[in-house]
Design goal:
Blueprint: E1 8-12, H1 15-18, H2 41-45, H3 68-81, E2 86-90, H4 93-96, H5 107-122, E3 126-132, H6 138-144, H7 151-166, E4 173-177, H8 187-191, H9 201-226, E5 231-238, E6 241-243, H10 248-270, H11 275-283, H12 294-300, E7 305-310, E8 314-316, H13 350-364, E9 368-372, H14 390-408, E10 414-420, E11 440-442, E12 454-456, H15 458-468
Parallel strand pairs: 1-2, 1-10, 2-3, 3-4, 4-5, 5-7, 6-8, 7-9, 9-10
Antiparallel strand pairs: 11-12
Length: about 475
C-alpha cells in the first residue's frame, strides 16, 4: 500500500469562489468581491486598475458564486457520498470581521462556520482550513493600504486568535495563507495591493510579503499555544520550472524562477530569509522593514507541513527573444513541445508533480500535502445534468500515479491530497463558471444564469473508488 492508512483524500474550495451571499450575515466587502469577470479582471487583480467598489458596468461572479452559503448541507452530503476524509475550505475574513479592525467578531459569521464544520464532522470529514484565501477586508485596503502596512499583522493575528479559540475542538489542520507567492504575480487579488504611478512595485510587494510572513509565524505560535495538537502549514503555488535547453544560462534562469517562489516557503519552513533572497533584494535596492523581534519570531515558529497547489510545470529561457509567453495560471511560461495543454493553455505534466514533490521534500524534509490539483475544462452535461468527463478522470489518474511513485519509490512523506474545485465554482483567474474542475456539476453559466442544481459527473463515482481503495483502484 503506497499511502498511509490515515491518508486524507478529499477536495478543496475557497469561500470567495463558492459561498456567495457576499453581504449576508453581516459579512463585509472584501477585495475578492470587487473582482469583475471579463477583460478588466486581470488589470484589477494585478493592482493596476483601482476598483474599490462594485459598479453597474461589470459582472461580479463571486457575489452569488454557487451559493454554498445556503446549500452547504447538500454540498457536504455530496462530498461525503464520495467518501471524503478531508475537505479543504477557507474562512472569509470579512464574515468574521466585516471591516477587519473590529475588536469583537461577527457572531453570525462564526456560527456559519460552526455549522459548516459540524456538518463535515457528522460525516467523519476532517476540515482543512485556509485562514486567508486571498481575502482582505476592503476597509483595511482603503484605510491602511492592506499588507503594505505593519498594522495588518495585528488585525490578522486577532482574527486568527478568534477562530483558533472558537474552532479548537473542530479543526486540526490550518493553512495561514493560500498561495502566498501569488503576491508577486496577482497582488490585488492575492493581498489587496494597489499601486500608485511611479511607485516601486517590487518594494511594495516584498514589504507586504514580509508582513505576511511575520503574521504567518505569529499565527503558528498562537495556534500551537491554543491547541498543541494543531497542525499548521504554509501553502505554495508550486510547479518546477524547466530549462528550455541544456545551455547553462537556461538552467540558471530556471533555478532563479524556482527560487522566486521558494523564497516564501524557505522563510516559513526554515525560519529565515535565504541568502540568495537577501542578495537579490540588496541588488534591487529593496529594503525589508525588519523590526525588533521579527528574526526570532520567524526562526522559532516555522510550519508543521508544506502544502501546495500543482497544476502544471513551467518552462523558461535565458534568451529574451525565446522567452515569449503563453497562457498559464498567472505564471508566464514557454510552451513545452513535449506536453499537451488544457483548453486554458495549462500544460499537463503528471511527472512534473513527482519532480515538484521531490524538490520540495528534498528541500524542507517536512510532510507534504497536495491541496490543489485538477483540470479546468468545459463540461457539456446531458439532459439529466450528467457529464462524461473522462478527460478529467485521465488527468487525475495520471497525477495520482505520479504522486504514488513519489511516495512509494522516492520516500516522500505525504499527508493527503485534495483536488481543486471538487464542486464546480467560479474560477479565480478568469472569473468564469465554464472553467470547471468538479466531480459535481453546478447549473450556472458565465453570465450568472442557471438553477444552481447539483448533479454528479462520471468522475464522482470514479473518485469514490479511488478513495475507497486508498489509491489502489485507478482504472
Amino acid at each position: 500500500m503506497a499511502f498511509r492508512e490515515d491518508f486524507l483524500w478529499g477536495g478543496a474550495t475557497a469561500a470567495n469562489q463558492c459561498e456567495g451571499a457576499y453581504l449576508e450575515g453581516g459579512r463585509g466587502l472584501a477585495n475578492v468581491d470587487v473582482m469583475p469577470a471579463g477583460v478588466d479582471r486581470f488589470s484589477v487583480g494585478s493592482g493596476e486598475m483601482k476598483m474599490f467598489r462594485c459598479d453597474d458596468d461589470h459582472f461580479y461572479p463571486g457575489h452569488e458564486a454557487i451559493d454554498m452559503y445556503h446549500n452547504y448541507k447538500e454540498d457536504i452530503a455530496l462530498l461525503a457520498g464520495m467518501g471524503f476524509k478531508c475537505y479543504r475550505l477557507s474562512i472569509a475574513w470579512s464574515r468574521i470581521f466585516p471591516k477587519g479592525d473590529e475588536l469583537e467578531p461577527n457572531e453570525a459569521g462564526l456560527q456559519f462556520y460552526d455549522n459548516l464544520f459540524d456538518e463535515c464532522l457528522k460525516y467523519g470529514i476532517e476540515p482543512l482550513v485556509t485562514i486567508c484565501h486571498f481575502d482582505v477586508p476592503m476597509h483595511l485596503i482603503e484605510t491602511i493600504g492592506s499588507w503594505r502596512s505593519r498594522q495588518m499583522i495585528d488585525h490578522y493575528v486577532h482574527y486568527c486568535e478568534v477562530i483558533f479559540k472558537r474552532y479548537k475542538n473542530k479543526v486540526k489542520y490550518w493553512l495561514t495563507f493560500n498561495e502566498i507567492n501569488m503576491i508577486l504575480h496577482f497582488p490585488f487579488m492575492g493581498a489587496g495591493l494597489c499601486f500608485e504611478e511611479g511607485e516601486n512595485k517590487q518594494q511594495v510587494k516584498y514589504v507586504a510579503a514580509h508582513h505576511e510572513l511575520v503574521a504567518s509565524a505569529l499565527a503558528t505560535k498562537i495556534g500551537h499555544e491554543i491547541n498543541p495538537e494543531f497542525k499548521i502549514g504554509c501553502m505554495l503555488a508550486a510547479g518546477n520550472t524547466y530549462a528550455n535547453t541544456c545551455h547553462p544560462a537556461d538552467v540558471w534562469k530556471s533555478m532563479e524562477k524556482d527560487r522566486e517562489n521558494y523564497f516564501f516557503i524557505d522563510v516559513q519552513s526554515r525560519g529565515e530569509y535565504p541568502a540568495y533572497a537577501l542578495k537579490q533584494l540588496e541588488r534591487e535596492g529593496i529594503e525589508i522593514p525588519f523590526e525588533e523581534g521579527d528574526v526570532e519570531i520567524l526562526k522559532n515558529h516555522t510550519v508543521d507541513f508544506i502544502s501546495f497547489s500543482y497544476y502544471s510545470s513551467r518552462l523558461t529561457s535565458a534568451d529574451p527573444e525565446v522567452n515569449k509567453t503563453t497562457d498559464g495560471n498567472a505564471f508566464e511560461t514557454l510552451k513545452n513541445p513535449y506536453l499537451e495543454a488544457s483548453e486554458w493553455g495549462w500544460q499537463i505534466d503528471p511527472l512534473g508533480l513527482r519532480i515538484t514533490m521531490n524538490a520540495l521534500y528534498d528541500r524542507y524534509q517536512k510532510p507534504l500535502f497536495i491541496v490543489e490539483n485538477g483540470l479546468g475544462a468545459v463540461d457539456v452535461p446531458d439532459a439529466n445534468g450528467y457529464v462524461k468527463d473522462d478527460y478529467r478522470i485521465d488527468y487525475l489518474r495520471e497525477h495520482i500515479k505520479a504522486m504514488k511513485e513519489a511516495v512509494e519509490l522516492d520516500g516522500v512523506d505525504l499527508i493527503g491530497y485534495t483536488t481543486w474545485g471538487c464542486i464546480d465554482l467560479v474560477s479565480a483567474g478568469t472569473g468564469e463558471m465554464k472553467k470547471r474542475y468538479g466531480f459535481i456539476y453546478v447549473d450556472k453559466d458565465n453570465d450568472g444564469n442557471g438553477t444552481l442544481k447539483r448533479s454528479k459527473k462520471k468522475s464522482y463515482d470514479w473518485y469514490k473508488k479511488v478513495i475507497e481503495s486508498n489509491g489502489e483502484q485507478l482504472a
